[in-house]
Amino acid sequence: MHSHISVAIYERFPVIIIVLSTIAAFIFIPHILIQDPISQLPIIGIEHGNTEKRRQAFIATKLPDDILSFDEPVGESLSAKYTKLIFKNPIFPHTVKQNLTPALVRLNPRISQEVEEAITREIPPCKDWTKVNVNQKLLRIVAMVSGCVFIGPEISRSEAYIDAAINYTIELVVATNAVKKVRPILRSFPTWRLAEIKSLDRWVEEAYAFLNQWLRQGEMQRKGRWLMGNAKDFEVDTDEDMARIQLGISFASIHTTTLTATNALYSFAAWPEYIEPVRDEIRTVLAQHDGIFTTRAIQDMKKLDSFIKESARQFPASLDAYRYLCGATARNQFISVTQNVMTFGYGRHACPGRFFAANEIKMIVAKMLLRWDMKNIGEEGRCDSIYFGGQSFPDPTKELLLKKVQD
Fold this sequence. Notes:
- By secondary structure, this protein is mainly α.
- It folds into two domains: about 1-60, no CATH class; about 80-405, CATH 1.10.630.10.
- Helices cover about 60% and strands about 5% of the residues.
- Strands 1-5-2 form a three-stranded antiparallel β-sheet. Strands 3-4 form a two-stranded antiparallel ribbon.
- Helix 12 packs across helix 16.
- The N and C termini lie far apart (about 105 Å).
- The relative contact order is 0.11.
């Protein structure tokens, strides 16, 4: 049997060879004679070596700042060329990382006291249901609390500072949007004449007027303020530059902190069933820490943390206030930066001030929940947001009803 098969294969071997040769010719000859047009395209990064090495060389998270810049898009998004925003000097992130964040354990009780005093100063008692524009109140509260940390309460509580910090923050956003409405080819010439740019410059002058005297008195140095202490290392040579940097810090700390806290309060007003459970948690945690907002106490307010993180999403169709309680790990915390939640950015360029900002937001929201119940004014659902391009903001004109919690 086997001999018959062998004979058959032997007899047909020339035919098999011809068939296989023909198939091979059809497959390989076109590749030899006709060059694939795609092969003519230049290969980016060929100097790095093979395909895998080229892939590794262009992983975004590993690219240095001179290849993939963080500062440039920030400057572009805020029209820094025209608004004169100082955004490239690393004094602010350095100061936050090296001075502020390590000091938060010591500072949190003091920050809590400042929050308490600012809320008492800015929001009426609301013994009965009272209309309150919470966004406007939060702007002033955040300005005072953030200013207390960076320049001290002597300045941060003055109306001159509060007005300059808040109005600079608002006018910078307005001026940025105004510049973007001008065609790029026309921006170099007319932007300095824009009313919005002129208004922004006036607030810079206002701020410089009172900061200049304060800086000349060496108040920062005497009190060990970090920015002045780091100024020489980062070539901040003039008082005007220091004033502009301080205004830039005010913008960074006031703008997003106020928006996030406003979002949280709008959400509590829209879903008041969450107020009492979160309030109970706050009371329980504070009782365990002698009534003090220590770092540990803030970390233990997990329902509050989850609620704020949920309300910061763009905006959820339905609110799952305890979404991030599931397996409450460090990855689920409000301050965490992950590929799924980038509220504070991601990777090495994540917001360096997020630890301070998160603590400040939690203290403000917690203290307001302990004082007042809140609800919308005759409307169902959450206050609508305002959309500008890919950005979403809580409507700053909306009012909520606040009423003092009965003891």
